[in-house]
Amino acid sequence: MVAPITHHTPAAAGAKYWNAYTETMPREQLDALHLKKLQLLVDYVWHHSAYYRRAMETAKVTPEQIKSLDDFKKRIPVTDKQDFLQLQAERPPYGDTLTLPDEMIHHHAETSGTTGTPLGIPWTLYDTERYGESWTYGFWAHGIRPTDSFYFAFNWGNFAGFWSCYWAARRFGAKVVSGGGANSEQHVQQILRMKPTVLISTPTFAVRLAQVARDMGEDMTQSSIKFTYHAGEPGPFALPAMKKQIDEAWGADSGELLGIAEIEAFAPGCPNRDGVHANEMNVFTWSMDPDTGDEVPEGEIGENIITSYTNSAQPLLNYRSHDLVRRLKSCSCGRTWDKLDGVVLGRTDFMVTVRGTNVYQTAVENILGETPGVSPYYELVLDHIDGNDRMTVRYEPEPSVDAGSYDALSKQVQETIHKALHVRLEMEPLAPNSLPRYDLKTKRITDNRPKELRRALDR
Question: Could you tell me if 297 and 370 lie in one domain?
């Protein structure tokens, strides 16, 4: 009898980590490795990037002056997506940020551009291999194995995010089933016919697909899907209510990765399913007070600042993510990589101060997701009235809720938010199916504040 083909040895099959050596490296060694990598990276951009050469000369810093991690954080200029968008607009497609000749670009992709001009992202072949590798840490920790098969429920356009997941599935050794070009009903039919075990999508699209399947008379808890894995917007580890909803809809175990298209799939899910860990082989991250620029202590909320080691064609150093995170230096899962507890708690441009109280997007979303009668379809509208920010929650009640009960439901949600967040938000119930549905990123925020009070909402 022919022995079955396996992708790994029995010892590897029972391993806790995809790469135990790197994922559990002591902090002292990690920091020493970061310093060496950052020094090489600073020297590289000094000699090969016109943009960074100008920025460093303006800041009066040279590569030789970066002798510690603090030197890097404080002396290398902080960059922002808007910097690169402007350069690309002036000299398309990449401005003067390239550090390699165009013939070495293997793959062109873009940010989603859901609220503005997309940012062009050039990758070398080596970049794509490293980018894809980041997902595999999370796959393995979640229980997914190379013998699983991946169904990609999205169209294969220029958006960078799920291309990297495709590279990851290939790196992982798993079977790939593409849903490109299919509509929601066809996605359901293909899953039932092809019997994949892992669904790859945005979290809200996973919820939508399950609903479409129910409308078709299909119960996806009885399908072949054992795992769902998500990125692109706040997901199961950021929003426990969403995890419960997805898990119950699919009869599966949902997971999450935090990525930024132009940076990397930089933070695979924690095995504890309560946050993500920065992949410290591929990125260096730290938390900054967005108002002062100072580093914030461990456990306090700050903006995640990222430097990627995997963007050899268009390096990004001290890059503002605008994501507000709570960074921890230890985790009971055993990984030593920095943990972002609760994933992303909000955005520097989403956080509003309503009558003196800071309101974070994920806090509101968790309450909505845990309130019976409230559907997954809602949006948060920001206005600035009489010198104060105001947030209005526009939501669809579940179809089973009688329209005569909308006011009572709104009052219940408003009181729950007030009790939890100590602030009253305006509530606006909408008729079922009145808000748009999205196949990729769901637009949760509409910002009507004056331009000077907000940044672009898209990364």
Answer: no
Residue 16 lies in a domain: no
Cβ atoms 132, 231 nearer than 8 A:
no
**Which residues on adjacent β-strands are paired with residue 385?**
388
| Same domain (yes/no): 89, 182 | yes
pLDDT score for 45: 97
Are residues 417 and 293 both part of a single domain?
no
Helices 406-421 and 361-369: crossing angle in degrees, nearest 10, is 130
Domain boundary among 344, 377, 396: 344
Q: Are 41 and 317 in contact (CB under 8 A)?
A: yes
Nearest by Cα to 383 from 325, 434, 330, 446: 446
Give me the domain span that covers residue 73.
22-344
Instruction: Report the share of the chain in percent with pLDDT over 90.
Output: 69
What are the distances in angstroms from CA 186 to CA 87, 168, 181? 41, 24, 9
pLDDT value for 160: 82
Rounded CA separation 72/94 (Å):
25
Shared domain check, 442 and 362: yes
Q: What are phi and psi of 168, to 5 degrees?
A: -65, -45
* Residue 420 contacts residue 363 (beta carbons within 8 Å): yes
Q: Evaluate if residue 16 carries a pLDDT over 80.
A: yes
